[in-house]
Amino acid sequence: MPLLVAASRPQLASVKGFIVDLDGVLWRGGEALPGAVEFIRHLEGRSRPYVVATNDPTARPDELAGWLRELGMPVAPERVLTAGMVVIEALQRKRPRGAEVQVIGTDSLKQLVVEAGYRLAEVNAEAVIVTLPEEVQMSELTQAIRALNRGAEFLAPNREMVYPSDDGVGAGDGMLVAALEAATGRRARVLGKPRRAFFRSALRMVGLPAAEVLVVGDNLRSDIQAGRRAGCRTALVLTGMTDREQLAASGEKPDWAFEDVRGLASALEAAR
To answer: What is the CATH number of the domain that holds 119?
Structure first.
């Protein structure tokens, strides 16, 4: 059932498309959250336009789609948007194909950069993309500092310090971004949530005006506040970063709030 929230509550029946967060909404720690399978199958069964949109830049869209399908959620790669993809879109507007780029991140992210037409480099890079991989070498950080001090583009998928995990929270990309900002005096251009660039990319994929799209997330700032600023309606689920007490105490209210996406799926059915 929906939770009572202070914001006005427009009719769910008028919602036509969805931007759905991943961590804390559909899964946590690689495991499906309550109602996630039913919710995605509802969207697929009703042919509702949607995109699964995540600030996590570590994986390729086909990898994420494959993992979701293994959990019973039939998501196509074309319905997946990562903050890493949005960073590459920004890079393409700033640097021509063939430019040298340093990527501090996973092999999957590096592969996406190469597929976009760029060359990977550790020295003389024209742009530096910073995430927080499982392992990072001091030599990588040294070369990044030198490139940034020479004026290289400083791009990051997000500045999130933590993210929800199955045993609490984990270290986020923002920790390394903040360290390099402090070391260089440069400010990273962040392209993931809550930035408008991320939601513009998501809305292009959904193919609908913002007023007809519902942002479904677990974070009051990067999902709810940012979704509202993008012109979308918003729904909060309490399976990730926000609990009942935090929702009650916050001045930022979603249009709807649910215990999990199972409640949202039920409300969508009832609104038909």
So the answer is: 3.40.50.1000
pTM above 0.85, yes or no: yes
User: What are the pLDDT tens digits along the chain (272 aa)?
Assistant: 455 554 445 588 899 999 999 999 999 888 999 999 999 999 999 999 999 999 989 899 999 999 999 999 999 999 999 999 999 999 999 999 999 999 999 999 999 999 999 999 988 899 999 998 888 999 999 999 999 999 999 999 998 887 766 676 778 889 999 999 999 999 999 999 999 999 999 999 999 999 999 999 999 999 999 999 999 999 999 999 899 999 999 999 999 999 999 999 998 888 87
Peptide bond before residue 49 is cis, with ω within 30 degrees of 0: no
Q: Is the same domain home to 157 and 246?
A: no
Looking at the fold, whether 186 and 198 belong to one and the same domain comes out as: no
3-state SS track over 83-133: HHHHHHHHHHHHCCCCCEEEEECCHHHHHHHHHCCCEECCCCCCEEEECCC
Closest listed residue to residue 172, CA positions, set 162, 181, 159, 180? 162
Query: What domain range is 172 assigned to?
Result: 84-190
